Amino acid sequence: MVKAVVLGAAGGIGQPLALLLKANPLVTELGLFDIVNTPGVAADLSHISTPAKVEGYLPPDDGLKKALKGADIVVIPAGVPRKPGMTRDDLFKINAGIVKDLATGIATTAPKAFILVISNPVNSTVPIVAEVFKKHGVFDPKRLFGVTTLDVVRASTFVAEIIGDLSLSKDVVVPVVGGHSGVTIVPLLSQSSHPLPSSLSQESHAALVNRIQFGGDEVVKAKNGAGSATLSMAYAGAEFAAKVLRALNGEKGIVAPSYVSVAADASGSAALTKELGQELAFFSSNVELGTEGVAKIIPLGKITEGEQTLIKAALPELAKNIETGVNFVSEAYKTEEPRL
Ligand SMILES: NC(=O)c1ccc[n+]([C@@H]2O[C@H](COP(=O)([O-])OP(=O)(O)OC[C@H]3O[C@@H](n4cnc5c(N)ncnc54)[C@H](O)[C@@H]3O)[C@@H](O)[C@H]2O)c1
Ligand SMILES: O=C(O)C[C@H](O)C(=O)O
């Protein structure tokens, strides 16, 4: 029996993500929480002939607690998306508070659940969840994941496009490390399961890296004020959730990149820190998943000089983003006691 919960379930990501989770046979219960419209979304999904029992909750009458009760996996796409001209960091002001409140609900109701954070800026919202959990004395770094899968999905698609065969895209695997915004997104194209054509010019290679790093902007621009990636994100979020669920179900050897706390695996992160030349509290790297969450953080391995330069550019930005998240929670708790 597995209960999955979506917080922000009526949104542009939340609805298709809830649909894909409802379609996952490993999910037997699906809790949907949002500040609007969840009863309708839940009624609609509940007619689909798959095992999951669906319930929708709103804030009144302890809706968040009811949605979270007994949760094994909680996915968070709650919060505002970008408009053209904005960076993900511009979302921090609104989304930090939303994520903090939802994290408080999880810490007090389902502290053992796996938490998959989609809300931007991921580089900072994941540290917010960690800090809230620490304040409540329930932080388990193995169970907290920043969802960076969309970067991996984009890399697979764009590499397959360059190879000239989109049918390969589901098989192309490119590790994408670092974080989830602009220069912190570092595709390790040299480790692609499908090598790039040797005829690819340096300029085209650089353009591919840039497209993976700024793929989100392409969608924000095309949507022209109506938000950011929702459908591709729902697909990516469901893919990552499916891997976590398979690992929870006992399947071995499942690997996926995710933005995790380095405290999740001391020896893996020590090797990673050596490669990076500095320690960061959070970093996205390939992670082996197990029944307890992160089983292993897999270091970068062999990378090119160009990739090393990209990592160097990512590190200061990531450090700043992490600090922003951590400071936000310590400031908040100066005026507010954790609700234990
Ligand atoms: N990690 C990624 O790769 C990635 C990709 C795409 C989008 N995102 C981020 O995901 C977030 C959501 O994007 P979207 O397009 O679905 O936005 P959206 O506005 O369509 O949906 C957000 C939903 O969150 C709900 N919400 C707001 N406050 C809430 C609260 N306190 N509790 C519960 N629900 C609440 C809203 O009612 C809305 O239904 C944004 O921050 C966006 O930047 C992340
Ligand atoms: O670009 C955004 O703001 C949304 C998301 O992070 C993305 O990568 O598409």
Automatic annotation (TrEMBL):
Pfam families: Ldh_1_C, Ldh_1_N. The keyword Disulfide bond does not apply. Keywords: NAD, Oxidoreductase, Tricarboxylic acid cycle. Its EC number is 1.1.1.37. Belongs to the LDH/MDH superfamily. MDH type 1 family. Residues 3-146 form the Lactate/malate dehydrogenase N-terminal domain. InterPro entries: L-lactate/malate_DH, Lactate/malate_DH_C, Lactate/malate_DH_N, Lactate_DH/Glyco_Ohase_4_C, Malate_DH_AS, Malate_DH_type1, NAD(P)-bd_dom_sf. One of its GO terms (molecular function) is L-malate dehydrogenase (NAD+) activity. Homodimer. It comes from the Eukaryota. It catalyses: (S)-malate + NAD(+) = oxaloacetate + NADH + H(+). One of its GO terms (cellular component) is cytosol. It is an enzyme of class 1 (oxidoreductase). One of its GO terms (biological process) is tricarboxylic acid cycle. Residues 148-329 form the Lactate/malate dehydrogenase C-terminal domain. Gene3D superfamilies: Lactate dehydrogenase/glycoside hydrolase, family 4, C-terminal, NAD(P)-binding Rossmann-like Domain. The active site is at 180 (proton acceptor). Signal peptide: none annotated. It comes from Hebeloma cylindrosporum. The keyword Nucleotide-binding does not apply. This is Malate dehydrogenase. Substrate binds at residues 82, 88, 120, 154. NAD(+) binds at residues 8-14, 34, 95, 118-120, 233.
